[in-house]
Amino acid sequence: MIRVLLADEGSTAKSEIGRPLYKRSVLIAAVFVVTLGLIIVDFTTWIELDVAAIYGFPLVLAGATRNRRLLWALTALLTITTFVAYALQIPVGAFTLQEKFFVNRLLDVVSLLLIAVLLHIWMTSADTSEAQARLIKDQNEKLEAAKVSRRLVEVQESERRALANELHDLVGQKLTALSINLNIVKTQMSSSPTAQASARLEDSLTLVEETIESIRNVMAELRPAVLDDFGLTAVLRWYAEQFVKRTGVATAVIEERPTRRLPPATEEALFRIAQEALANVAKYARARKATVTLETTPQVVCLTIADDGCGFDPTAFHQPAKDHGWGLMVMRERAAAVGAQLDVESAPGCGTRVIVSLKGDPP
Ligand SMILES: Nc1ncnc2c1ncn2[C@@H]1O[C@H](COP(=O)(O)OP(=O)(O)O)[C@@H](O)[C@H]1O
Ligand SMILES: [Mg+2]
Q1: Ligand 1: residues whose CB is within 6 Å?
Q2: Which atom of ligand 1 is nearest to the CA of 307?
Q3: Of the four, 103, 126, 257, 347, which is 20 to 30 A from 309 by CA?
Q4: Which domains, from first to last, does the chain contain?
């Protein structure tokens, strides 16, 4: 669902950027056409346009484009045109600095410059407040995304817990009852067994035991009971064993010194991070060895999952993309949710280390 949302946001953003750019170009073209049009009409026909019209229209339009370069180009163009027009109008030798028309033109240009400066200041402040608004919007969106992913992690955990409980109560208990019944039948049949029925019964018993075992494994994956009963190191060892069987990557769990028990939420978060990091080792690292190290002192809890595989460039995965990078983000969110920090140290060809560190008393 998030992927769909993000994809939609991307395309909307694109079209929203595209529209103002298009409008701007149309406005800039209109400003030039209007300015040149007014000047040409004033020069070449009997129509005498007021200077305010020649200055005013273009400047108002330039203001709408919010383009400072265009504003000053227009101002320069209008200033030059004003003096050139004046020079063409006065008879040769009639010019003096006190001449009435010259003083008027000078005042025109001064007011033009004043308007241009005002517009420039307005454009700058409008740009700044827009940039600030964009920044605030970006930050809000990031906060919102972080909240959503944290919520997803919580929902995932509670769903897993509910599923494990259902499996235990609905399927597990019934299978156990079935196994007991079959054992009773077996005992009762032992007096007069037919070879065929006896073989079927044995077969059924084995099937039921195997199914119970599979369900236990699934339940353990969903919500490892070992975690509740024996703590993080035990569950990491159990998981590493399964991981070796499944993937063939030699995986060791090292406990730096006797581990103290941590709050349940912290133990669960650290275990899930190790699970995801090992899943990445299996999926991407092409590693021969992996090591899970857990160190807890009164001041620090540090969990490291290291592999000797192909490594990657972690800076390329700061933001999740459509089809990858969610694992790293969820790991970061899980760590943040219990006040820990997650660092990924890796480079192509140099293996990978995922380090979760929690300073001070965990929450
Ligand atoms: N241990 C690792 N070794 C090599 N590459 C890795 C390792 N862990 C992660 N990566 C790279 O980082 C990317 C992002 O990982 P992740 O966020 O877990 O996303 P996903 O598993 O959904 O692709 C992976 O696609 C992979 O290229
Ligand atoms: Mg992953």
Answers
A1: 280-281, 284-285, 307, 309-312, 317, 324-328, 352
A2: 1
A3: 257
A4: 2-146 (no CATH), 225-359 (3.30.565.10)
